[in-house]
Structures are given as structure tokens and as C-alpha cells.
Amino acid sequence: xxxxxxxxxTIQIASTDLDALCSSxxxxxxxxxxxxxxxxxxxxxxxxxxxxxxWNTVMRALIGADEALQTIHSIEP
Length: 77
Known about the structure:
Elements: E1 7-14, H1 18-23, E2 32-35, E3 38-45, H2 48-75
Antiparallel strand pairs: 1-3, 2-3
């Protein structure tokens, strides 16, 4: 049996709404930090399939947050 190595993926996003994007992931098990004007999200897992599933979860949360922020910004005076 071969030893599996851990897979990891780091996502960095530049935005004017850093705290809101990071907060959209507060219920997810991914570390999310704000550094140098970017949101940094780290995804780690043993399997590639799990990294892909976690990527999908992160993207759904970020897309939802982005759509909500666009709506808020469009109605602000």
C-alpha cells in the first residue's frame, strides 16, 4: 500500500469587500485570512476528489457573497 500525500490548494482573491467575503466562509472548515488586500483561503485534503468538493463549496459561498454584495452596492445611495 502506498502512502498518500496531502493535497493543498490556496486561493487568493483581491476585492474591496475582503471582510465580507471572508465572513461568507465562517461556517466552513477552511482557514480564511485577509493579507495584503487579498482574501486567502487554504484547502487541504488527502484525496484529490475531496479537494475538488471543497473547492466547489468555497466557490458557491464566494459566488453567493459576491452576488449579495453586488445587490447591496447597486441600491446604496
